[in-house]
Amino acid sequence: MITTKYFGKTAEGKSVLAFTLWDGDRSVTILNYGGIVQSIIVPDRDGRLTDVALGYPDVAGYEQNGGYLGALIGRFGNRIGGGKLNVDGVDYQLACNDRGNHLHGGKVGFNRKIWAHGVVGDTLALSIVSPDGEENYPGTLRVTVLYTFRNRTLTIRYRATTDKKTVVNLTNHTYFNLNGEGGGTVLSHILGIESDRITPTNETMIPEGLFRDVEGTPFDFRTPKAIGHEIGADDIDLKQGNGYDHCFVLHNEGRLERYATVTAPGTGITMNCYTDAPAVQFYSGNGLHQQGKGGYYGCRAGFCLETQAIPNNPNVPAYQLLGSSYLAPGEVYLTTSSYEFKV
């Protein structure tokens, strides 16, 4: 079941709706502003309903306070080095909005758009048309994102087509805290990631073509451990990110498979994560500094697992081999990610 209510107005006076997807007494609320996951309410080990998604209580929070909390990211999730994009020999200069690089779609990404909406049964469909030249990307891109919440599992399905060759790398930027949003840091959360390689970056967080084995490094989560266990280690990649903000390469070969499990010892809530995308960006919320729904969100008050193709892959052939973000007319971009909540 999906219920709809008025959430507020943007600074421009546009109405924002909140759609709540129900699974028994569990619920997920999605906004048509930015495709934002505004709340995820699930029971803890004692049956107490707990909101595990960081967010804001009103539209102004999402417009003014940043952080991409809960947002649907596009056209290109994560970074493109120097904002440089070449499509079939034509150079495009994208906006550089993060340390001289292009991040999360540019100055006005999909996270700041009002999406068209439709509800069919227990599925919420959000859609948008991004015109040719928007944020200087080539091609008119048509995007539909489907949300369902069934059997304790939030599933997000992304679809896109274009009329001109372009790039696309959609993801979701929910910050999770399984102790409850506003419940302190996530450093005690036990995280496991099925990945044996990351993509190291330069000092501006751009991966440039290399891979790094996680064996013997703070990035080895193949055996689950606390997020905070090695976050302060003397490691060049950790120091450049001020903690974890790195792309982990997956081995699902395009199949929807589990890639991560996270448990909060305090509540007993476990989140199992699935995707068919080739990689995931694990971000430990190092830059959080926001006043949210449940109070102040400080450094590492939430973590993100952003499923995607490897960042900067349009400029790195070695990364394209593991999943290219180029999309041509007649092709369909499809990817799915799911989040299962258990105790």
Please provide a written account of the structure:
The protein has 343 residues and is mainly beta. The chain has one domain: Beta-galactosidase, Chain A, domain 5 (Distorted Sandwich). Helix content is 5%, strand content 41%. It is globular, with a radius of gyration of 19 Å. It starts with a strand and ends with a strand. The model has no long low-confidence stretch (mean pLDDT 97).
Would you kindly provide a brief summary of this structure?
This protein has helices spanning 59-64, 236-241, 317-320; strands spanning 2-9, 15-23, 26-31, 37-43, 49-51, 71-73, 79-80, 84-87, 90-93, 102-103, 116-120, 123-130, 141-150, 153-162, 166-167, 171-173, 190-193, 197-198, 212-213, 225-226, 245-249, 257-263, 270-275, 279-283, 290-292, 295-297, 304-308, 326-327, 333-342.
Helices and strands in order:
Layout: E1 2-9, E2 15-23, E3 26-31, E4 37-43, E5 49-51, H1 59-64, E6 71-73, E7 79-80, E8 84-87, E9 90-93, E10 102-103, E11 116-120, E12 123-130, E13 141-150, E14 153-162, E15 166-167, E16 171-173, E17 190-193, E18 197-198, E19 212-213, E20 225-226, H2 236-241, E21 245-249, E22 257-263, E23 270-275, E24 279-283, E25 290-292, E26 295-297, E27 304-308, H3 317-320, E28 326-327, E29 333-342
Antiparallel strand pairs: 1-2, 2-3, 3-4, 4-5, 6-16, 7-10, 8-9, 11-12, 12-13, 13-14, 14-29, 15-28, 17-20, 17-22, 18-19, 18-21, 21-24, 22-23, 23-29, 24-27, 25-26
